[in-house]
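Page 37, top half.
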Amino acid sequence: MIENNIIKSLGAGSGIDSGALVKQLTEIERAAPQGRIDAKREKAEAQISDFGLMASAMDKLKSSVTALTAKEGLYSKSASYTDSDALVPTKLDTNVQPGTYSMEVKALAASQSLSFAGLPSASDAVGEGVLTFNFGSWDRDGNNDPTTFVADASAKTYTVTIDSTNNSLNGLKDAINKAEMGVQASIIFDGTGHRLVVSAPSGANKELQITAAEAGDTPTNTDAGGLSRFAFNDAIAGIADVEKQMGADAELVINGLALTRSSNKITDVVQGLTLDLLKAAPGEVVTVTVSDDKTFAEEKIRGFVDAYNAFLEEVEPAFSFNKEEEKWGSLRNDSLAKSVLTRFRSVIGAAIPGLTDSSYSALTNLGIRTQLDGTLKINEDDFEKAMSNNFADVQKLLAPHTNSSASDITVNSFGKQTQAGSYDVVITTPPSKGYFTGAAMDAGVTFPNFDTTGKSYSFTLNINGVESNSIALPTDAVYTSTDELAAAMQSAINADAKFKEGGITAVVTYDADTNSMSITSSRYGTNSWVNVVSASGDAITDLGIAQGNGTKGVNVAGTVNGVPGFGLGNVLLPKLGEKAEGLSMIIGENATGGTVNFSRGFAGQMEELVGQFMQTNGLFDSREDILQRQLVDLDDRETRLERRMTAFHERLLQQFIAMESILNGLNSQGGFLENLVDSLPFTSSNK
């Protein structure tokens, strides 16, 4: 109220609207610094928006670049095959070797199927106890009826327990299925009773032996009732009646090579090619032709060209002159934004470093060229020739590529920091695996009739720090050769539950010169060893496998471009900080050295460049942080300006109030003087 009275009183003496004048003077004082703040804020906000525009456009470009660096982009394969319902290719990995494969399906793999005597109801009790399932194969008579079971030493034994909680036909079926042993159980009503039907995994060596141990009784597997009704072994009368289908391997011929497999899904014959066998067709040859999927690769290359041109179009407003608004884009003079375009153009126009085994070194060799406006255009003739005649060079030009002059030195991987180039690798210490070599076998161990009947060949191993259970060779087995004995020992070792859990495997070999068996770890390096913890008397006497420590493995050692690297097992890594840092090389046991070449390829370089700009805490994030801090600073400056203007306005206001007070005083004094003059003699207006 007081302030309003003061404001109203302004101008009373001078006749000037001092309140309006103070406001105008304050606005004039505010205009210049406020204009600078507003201009900087507008620019910062526009740059944040335009950097967001660039990031969005670059993200689309990144997708097209990643499609070229991915194996599925340039290394995708296609397959064609002659019309047949015998087999069909179902999967092609990028590592499939292009070529033509002739295939003949002679027989399909089959699963052994067992059907047991029926019960009136699926809920009827079956008896309590334990069923034991073993996998292997059955020797058969002339009618293919099973006679003697031969267990697979490498296969795991499974048990199924039936007690009061699951004592029914349904409970038995569920218990078998829940055991996750690859055996499927079902109940089928045949019109007179409910039968338990058991199907083993497919394959001749995946057949079943089932033994029963009744609860509290010594198992005989011949009881008419109880769990023994579901036993399947050579002690069972009428065993042939239980088996409805025998297990069998698939038989096929590929490029003249006869093969057998336990499954009708073939994944390990042609690397990277998966086949489904549909029916046996002896005499029918199916031709499968695998080739590079150039159409798919061409689609990805053209996709990159379109994406790059779209990127330039999307970011153009941030750099060009807007005629409608009559101003330039906010990033016209921004060094970071301009460097994006400059560095992209540099990669597009330059030769790709590290390519030593390709006739193509730049995009122009592929027919992709830069136009005057910066966009890319494909010369269709050159592009078609490159794709048709030099596709391998196109792959090397665009995608990351490595090669080695030595077959026993291969590049396993590379890192973001790995620089393209050639690197001389010298191996000073080849890698080795840990092993244990037994003493000479007893002279009584002779072949082809080495019989384990009545013997106990068992031992416990410590491989790479994992101690096994007791490992035993099958009893009552006859080995016809040292290779067969070594294979049986290897299967028994690799089947050990603790080794399987720890990912431990070993190889067993026979040395004819020393007449001894060697057990070698599959791992390389100083963390690789094979020690015998304990062994049975027969294993010590006959096989020479006695308690003792073997020989540890050795880590690889070598140099990369003359600088010692770091070796772990059979992997050699260059020293940190070197140009080759991140290059992981797998070294063979007989390696001496070689030259390794590494190229990121055009797409790899572009991917790395895009990553520098767009990655978390990358260049774009850093610039946005700076711009956001500028906005915060501008808010602070505006707050300070507002305080200064408030003070300035108040100061002017007080000054004008003082001026008006003086003028009011002068006016009052003027009236007094006039009255005084009028009252003086000879000055009165009345005289």
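Page 37, bottom half:
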Amino acid sequence: MNKCLRLLFIVIAVMLTSTSLLQAQVPIPPQRGVKKDQPAQSQRQVDEQLARSFFNNKEYDKAADLYQQLYINHRYYYYFSQYIECLLFLERYDEAEKDLKSFVKNDNSTNKWKSQVTLAYVYLKNNESDKAERNLKKLINELPADKNVYLQVANMLRSKDFDEYAIMLYNKGADNPTIDYKFLMEKALAYQSMLNFEKATENYLLHLETDPEDYELVKSRLSFMLRYDVDGSVIDEMRMSLLKKTQERPDDVLFAELLVWFALQMKDYEIALNQEIALDRRLNDREYDINYLARIARDNEQYDIALRAYDYIIKKSKEGAFYPEAVVGRSEVEYKKVETPQSDVSTEWYSSFEQRIMNECAELGISDNTIPLLIIRAEILAFKLNLIESAIELLNEYLDINISKLNKAKLKMSLADIYLYKDEVWEATLLYSQVDKSMKEEPIGHEARYKNAQLRYFIGEFDWSLAVLNILKSATSKLIANDAMSLSLLITDNLEYDTIALTRLAKADFYIYQKKYELAEKMLDSINIYNPNEVSMPYLLIRKAKIALDKDDYQLADSLYKRVYQGYSDSYIADESLLENAILLERYLNNKEAAMECYAKLIDEYPASVYVAQARNAYRRLREN
């Protein structure tokens, strides 16, 4: 019997040994996220991932148990803070208070002070605000004079929305000579969180006084505040603070430059120019900035500001590096200014201006820099003084000089426009084609292609024009793409409905281009008499409106634009007529309320229009002003 039992034990032992060997030979599949041959995750990692998962899934009771056990096992503060966070979500405030008090009593690290902030937060959540206040004031009084401690505790205060107490702590630290740090940037951020933009700006500027190397950082913080300005209060506070600071510190260049930057953000070009001129008079190195500001003002149609900037550079010295550019820029701006519809200048003015430009070209010489002057002079000769042959001769004279490819293309474009105005269609189309071929992928090449398509439309070659326009609708230049889309829709819309009306409309457009308004109106009236229809009528009306605008008959233009979008709201040009009427009302009739109504109507009723972005920007600008 004993032998049998012994044998049985031996067999069992062999079987167990064999099983162990087999298990040793079969590899354990690696856990997900763990590379082969690496040890499996520790229990701590598993528990931490599980606790995080419970927390993220809002299973706070399960997460609290795990975080509590993790803290007991590993004494890592993060686990304790997460455990308290779970208790707060579970509204177990008494339990959180008890554990926090125990922690504060037994800890001597910075975490002790952080936990006191959390304890005040628990009191606040439990409707014990008096206790919270007493606890925070006691904490601020007891903190050791250590910059890092102050920063960590202040960050904790701010994370719990105790910004006022964070500022109290910053002020206490700033007054302590042993800490030797003013906490100005930190205070600015706290005030910013409290929406106290005056104090925020004040502290950013005070920081810049003490740390001028942080200029770009301060500028970026101010820029961030401006982006989130809802009611204009930030702009007002920032403007007052900057003006005050530049008056207090007139010799501090940084604040003057910051005021220029702010003025440009606000498109307040007058303040920006005043500061730049003041800086130049003091430092004699701001001509580049003044010239740059003049270009920005010009592009934003602030012509008087641009002229004052250019005049300053011109009067300063003829030897200055930016003198030639200022002379050219001034003439460009003056020409743009008199070309606005509300401007009223005589033929004598144009004649005198053309002579001045001729003298400027003689002074500076004809080069890439002065090509814009040459083009302006040719346009005045052709379109204002009716000296078409003189304009053509002038441009042809300089086509073969040594200038850039782009400027040569600009000369050819101007010459082609004049030939088309003169009714020499084939000379015009040849030049447009040359520019298109030589500058195929450039914006001016796209413009030449569009003008060629427009020319073909003028002379009734609608299929040729459409083929080009349909390609141009995807041009990189947004302006050309929009123009191509508009003309393409006009041709397609009318071509399918009434070819005769389209032919007359094209002739009227050609006459408008040539400023033969009497002939254009007769052609438009012929459509109204012989071919009136729902398709051609809105196009007819909008052209009559543009003729009226060019003749300064603003009331007639206003009524004609209204007839388009009120009577033909489904027309392809209803959105264009709304935009044009809004611009008319704003610029020439000084009726901003009516203009805003037009912009709003366009945005609401034509959301897919190419003009929506322009209308939205204009509406926002009018509302803010």
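Margin note: Confidence is low (pLDDT under 50) at residues 1-40.
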